[in-house]
Structures are given as structure tokens and as C-alpha cells.
Design a protein that fits this description.
Layout lengths: L1 H9 L3 E6 H16 L5 H13 L9 E8 L2 E7 L4 E6 L6 H16 L3 E3 L4 H7 L4 E2 L5 E2 L7 E8 L23 H5 L18 H5 L22 H5 L9 E7 L1 H9 L5 H13 L6 H12 L2 H20 L1
Parallel strand pairs: 3-9
Antiparallel strand pairs: 1-2, 2-8, 3-4, 5-8, 6-7
Amino acid sequence: MDQLENWARARGYRAAQVALASLQAVLDELAARHERGEFAPGIRTRLANALLAKWPLSSRAKSLVLVAVPAPVHSIVFDTGQGELEATVPPTYAYFGNTALMVRTQLQQALGEHFWPARVPLKALAVRAGLARYGRNNLVYVADLGSFIQLLGFESDLEVEPGRAGLEPELLAQCAGCRVCREHCPTGAIGQDRVLLHAEKCLSLVNQAPGDWPDWVLPSVHNSLLGCMACQDLCPANQGRRVKAVLGRVPPAETQALLQGGREAEALQEALEARFRDWGLQCGVEVMSRNLRVLLAQPWQGRRKEGLASDNRGRAGHA
């Protein structure tokens, strides 16, 4: 569908259309992997429920449209009263709902009332549609955008053009002979045996779950407020494609309320949790508080605070 692809490129996006048969192929593959026990326990349960639901589409659906939108690496600046910490939030975490609504509106304005949100396995379908390829780290990469993207899926009543068959999954060409992500994964979640991530070892799974850190994870490997950026930041296929954007700043009183808790801090915590939701972040204050404390305890953060103090003394002396 050249019109769709041209619409996307004009906005810096990438898009592709795929037949409904590709969704069935993806579901069959997921079911087979589920039967072989390849997924982590939590993911296995969610996947089983989704497979039972069969990812239903509406009766009007004749095809699926996948859109890749460039997404920055976000950050939140926390002011502790003694310095600032800029905490990283990976590209796929913030503003997902807002982005989906914006792109659907743009699609309808440009191409007509033919697109509705679809809850489908986005990565696997993007690969089948030829929009993306898997990296060794199990992320998907889109030409000219890398893995710094937000994937969106829509069902459509537009037919797929003849000859546009779904593609078999392929590994990104740059991954051949490259071991960067595997060697730098802080928890060993990227194996040599398969492209599918060993999600039960993934830092992103750990730091988004409430409770204490498991014994096998060193807090020192924590590098983002949520998720992990290790494999994306070091990936050669991503070089020169990282864009930063600040979600917002948290003043000292709210930062201390997040860190210390207690009854007196509840009102500030509730306001901060509402702000997290406005940014599209789904984790509550318990997870954010624990993760922020771990980030503040990192050795490199200590060095940064010393630098900030030195800078402040220098400014005072100059004045």
C-alpha cells in the first residue's frame, strides 16, 4: 500500500500492511513456543490467557497496519535538594496511549476512516510485515530508526494488495558475528542458544515488579528508573539514532516524599503517582521509590553529586 508508506515517511514514521493470515501464523508460532516451555513463568501465564482469547479482531477487519514511530529515550529529573539525578526511561514506556491516539487520528485524516486500534503481538507482526527485523537482543529494529521506536497496531477494512505475502522472521544483518549485546547484558538474559530473550533473567522484568530485589540481581547493574538500556545504548545498529527528551522535573519535596514515604508524605506521593500516569508510566510509587533509591546509591551517582557540589562551590567563589 504505497499511499500508507508515503504517509508514514512524510512524518518520519514507517508503516506496513499485512494480511490477517500473518496474525494466525504468529499465533501458531507463539502457541508452539508456549508448548515447548520457552517463555518465562509470568509471561507464560499471560500468553496462555491471550492465546485462549485468540486476540479477537472485529468483523470489519481485512488487514492489519503496523506503524513505527520514532521514540526518544526519556528521562525524569529528580531534585534531591543536594543535587539532581536524571533518571532514564526507555523509549517504549512513556506516552504509549497518547501516541496511539495521535497516530490513529493522523491516519484517519489522511487516508479515511479505515483504522481501529488492535491488540496484537506487535513485534512479531512487524517482522512478518517486513517493517522490522529482530536484533540479537530480541528487540525489533526498523530501517533508519533502529530500536528507538514505538510500535502501534491497527486493524483495517482495507484489503491487502495482491502479492504482499507475510515474510518469515529474519535477524538483523548487523547481528551476524556481533556479540556486543550478549556480552554487556548485565544479567545474562541474551543467550547464545536463541534470539528469544531469557526473560526470567531480564533486568526489565525485575525492576518493574514490586518487592525486594532477588538475590541473583546486583543492584549495581540497575541503570534506568524502569527497564534497562544496556543492550540498546551499546548496539552498533543504534549508533547515532539516540534522541533524548525530558518528561519533567520532580522538585525536592516530592522527591523526598518518594524516597522516604510515611503518612505525612502520602498527599505528595499521590500527586506524583498521578503525574507518572500522565506520562504514561504504569508502575506505582512503591516501584519508583525502590528504583530511585538504587540509582542514587550507584557509585557513579556519588561521583556526580561530588561534581555538582564542586560546581556550586566554584560558582560561590566566583561570585
